[in-house]
Specification:
The complex is a heterodimer of chains A (115) and B (115).
Chain A lengths: L4 E3 L2 E4 L5 E6 L6 E7 L6 E7 L2 E4 L8 E4 L6 E5 L8 E8 L9 E2 L3 E5 L1
Parallel strand pairs in A: 2-11
Antiparallel strand pairs in A: 1-3, 3-8, 4-5, 4-9, 5-6, 7-8, 9-10, 9-11
Chain B lengths: L2 E3 L4 E5 L4 E3 L2 E3 L5 E8 L6 E7 L7 E2 L2 E6 L4 E6 L8 E9 L6 E3 L3 E6 L1
Parallel strand pairs in B: 2-12
Antiparallel strand pairs in B: 1-4, 3-9, 5-6, 5-10, 7-8, 8-9, 10-11, 10-12
The chains are: A mainly beta (115), B mainly beta (115).
Chain lengths: 115, 115
């Protein structure tokens, strides 16, 4: 079956603009995660969904960042008033059952560049 | 808070040689998972190997094995008979069991396999 997909693959935007990044998890996976990977760093946790609800959004850096998962499947990460420091690769992952031995499967990421 | 430290930013080895990547972590928890992920230039995070902390036996997956020293909080990855396709960034990662499932990553080791 298909893996986790993310669109767009690359996004270039100007400072101050609004962007949306989409994640399509593996079918049937109830848990969905967003991570941000800055250049030369490992991924850092942003937010975790169990079903439709955000179970943990402690990693969101500020209120310009928001994510939704209205039907418990596709998720959208939204960034308002983008800043140059938001430039990074945004990774999405999904797993079948949280809290257990289930592996998180990662998508290929969206590379965001804010000019 | 949990932390993961990878002290080798970059390594190079000849094809067919064995290489060991180091990782240490810090946690006060007793139940957790440890992972090694591979990230080639395609950005896709690929799970290489996983170790449950309650298991004393070191995990192995074909040419990949770990040396898990729980008391020392050390989790190294050994790659035997290295191949050109092993060239990638390798991330050591930690996940607490039965909590919010977010994965905490180290900064990574860039591994070059030389022909």
């Amino acid at each position: 079956g298909a893996g986790v997909s993310q669109t767009p693959s690359n996004k270039v935007t100007e400072k101050g603009k609004y962007v949306e990044l989409r994640c399509d998890p593996i079918s049937g996976h109830t848990a969905l995660y967003w991570y941000r990977q800055s250049l030369g760093q490992g991924p850092e946790f942003l937010i975790y969904f169990q079903g439709t609800g955000a179970a943990d959004d402690s990693g969101l850096p500020n209120d310009r960042f928001f994510a939704v998962r209205p039907e418990g499947s596709v998720s959208t990460l939204k960034i308002q008033r983008t800043e140059r420091g938001d430039s990074a690769v945004y990774l999405c992952a999904s797993s079948f059952i949280p809290g257990g031995p289930e592996t998180q499967y990662f998508g290929p990421g969206t590379r965001l560049l804010v000019l | 808070a949990q932390t993961v430290t990878q002290s080798q930013p970059e390594m190079s080895v000849q094809e067919a040689e064995t290489v060991t990547l180091s990782c240490t972590y810090d946690t006060s928890e007793s139940n957790y998972y440890l992972f090694w992920y591979k990230q080639p230039p395609s950005r896709q995070m690929i799970l290489v190997i996983r170790q449950e902390a309650y298991k004393q036996q070191n995990a192995t997956e074909n040419r990949f094995s770990v040396n898990f020293q729980k008391a020392a909080k050390s989790f190294s990855l050994k790659i035997s008979d290295s191949q050109l396709g092993d060239t990638a960034m390798y991330f050591c990662a930690f996940m607490q069991l039965n909590r919010d499932d977010k994965i905490i990553f180290g900064k990574g080791t860039r591994l070059h396999i030389l022909p």
